[in-house]
């Protein structure tokens, strides 16, 4: 139980740091210079569209800690290393915690003799 909780605390620390130290909003133009072009219509249909899903904790931390002008779209989150690492850490924490709780609950009920 200490492993998943320690991972959660570290994920929170990474997210706090990531949300409070966001680069300026024009940072995305250094990654995607084509976004600055007013005639840019998108990449087309033959390009993979990758977007992370939101979660309540990530959303709340973004609202409380981040400057709304600097907060990136979820489709651009992979270009912000601390936010992406924190997002993945929360994802893996949830999968590890959920599986540990489910397995522990099932085995206790199965092996316990009353």
What does it look like?
- The protein has 114 residues and is mainly alpha-helical.
- Helix content is 56%, strand content 0%.
- The two termini are 25 Å apart.
- The mean pLDDT is 80.
What is this structure, in a nutshell?
The protein is mainly α and 114 residues long. Helices cover 56% and strands 0% of the residues. The model has no long low-confidence stretch (mean pLDDT 80).
Observed structural traits:
114 residues; mainly alpha; 4 helices; globular
How are the secondary structure elements laid out?
Blueprint lengths: L1 H19 L7 H4 L24 H10 L15 H31 L3
Q: Give me the Rg, rounded.
A: 19 Å
Ends: how far apart? 25 Å
Main sheet specs: none
Which range does the strand content fall in? under 5%
pLDDT averaged over residues: 80
- Tally of helical runs: 4
Which H/E pattern describes the elements?
HHHH
Overall structural class, as computed from helix and strand content, comes to: mainly alpha
- Dominant shape: globular
> Percentage of helical residues?
55-70%
């Amino acid at each position: 139980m200490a492993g998943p909780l320690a991972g959660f605390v570290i994920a929170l620390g990474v997210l706090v740091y990531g949300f409070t130290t966001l680069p300026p909003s024009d940072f995305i133009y250094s990654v995607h210079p084509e976004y600055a072009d007013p005639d840019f219509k998108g990449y087309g249909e033959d390009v993979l569209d990758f977007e992370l899903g939101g979660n309540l904790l990530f959303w709340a931390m973004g609202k409380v800690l981040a400057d709304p002008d600097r907060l990136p779209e979820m489709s651009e989150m992979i270009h912000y290393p601390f936010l992406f690492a924190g997002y993945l850490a929360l994802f893996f924490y949830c999968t590890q915690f959920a599986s540990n709780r489910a397995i522990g609950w099932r085995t206790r009920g199965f092996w316990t003799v009353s």
